[in-house]
Design goal:
Length: 259
């Protein structure tokens, strides 16, 4: 049984502390949403594991959200179904209860990702879809030059894509996800050409990896980035990214189909 935080958070991040303003910075990005919708195919019933505030859910499908954090459940818009208070590793549903299962920016939060994936496979008749990051590519992002421990944390937390595929079994495809310049889902790489956004404490707070770094070090990292942007050093090194319409970083869509 997972140890849960005061607000019910069941993974390694405490959303009771960091989740209060999450939806101000983490909105569903429509271009990423279209990729998810295409990958779900004709699935009508979908369980969304680690559903948070409801990003990437759609009214066109019957979605059952699962979210252990009370803070995150409270931020779900009125038009979305209320989330079931449960954890990935113990889904309270019958075998083959859904056409598909999905988890977006969630699998790296779980206490036991293998158990969670086995549960998703158990309750889904069709595809299991994961929007996640390839840890091998995480440190390639420019932020590593200014906040190395943040990306070290991300690389450590995200399961290897090969491990995800092994647990899912069956046919697994992995698709790199292009990140648009004006991406409204504010994960770190969403700001690849807008470094000023990561000077906002709220934007950093909405990325759980920052919460694992000592506060004094976080402030030092933010000050270093601020100085680099202000002096023009960031633009000298990475300024061409301001003109790229999209960026292919570590974000991937992993889809497992049953045998």
């Amino acid at each position: 049984m997972n140890k849960r935080g005061a607000d019910g958070s069941a993974g390694d991040a405490d959303y009771g502390s960091i989740g209060e303003r999450y939806t101000s910075y983490r909105q569903p990005e429509p271009r990423i949403a279209r990729l998810i919708e295409a990958a779900l195919g004709d699935a009508r019933t979908v369980v969304n594991v680690g559903a948070g505030a409801g990003s990437y859910e759609t009214a066109e499908r019957a979605v059952t959200p699962v979210e252990p954090s009370a803070v995150m459940r409270a931020q779900r818009p009125p038009g979305l179904p209320a989330a079931v208070d449960a954890v990935a590793e113990q889904l309270p549903f019958e075998d083959d209860a859904f056409d598909a299962a999905m988890a977006t920016f969630s699998v790296h939060q779980w206490g036991d990702f293998r158990a969670g994936l086995r549960e998703m496979r158990r309750v889904a008749r069709g595809p299991v879809l994961l929007l996640t990051a390839d840890p091998v590519l995480v440190r390639d992002f420019w932020l590593y030059a200014y906040a190395p421990l943040v990306l070290d944390t991300e690389a450590r937390r995200y399961p290897a894509v090969a491990d995800l595929a092994e647990v899912l079994g069956g046919l697994v495809d992995v698709t790199p996800v292009p990140i648009p310049f004006d991406c409204v889902d504010g994960f770190n790489e969403a700001y690849y050409g807008r470094p000023e956004m990561l000077l906002d404490p709220g934007a950093r707070q909405a990325n759980s990896a920052w919460s694992f770094v000592d506060p004094a070090i976080r402030e030092r990292y933010a000050a270093a980035l601020d100085a680099a942007v202000g002096s023009g050093e960031w633009d000298e090194r990475y300024g061409e990214l301001r003109h790229r319409p999209s960026y292919e970083g570590s974000l991937v869509l992993v889809r497992g189909l049953p045998d």
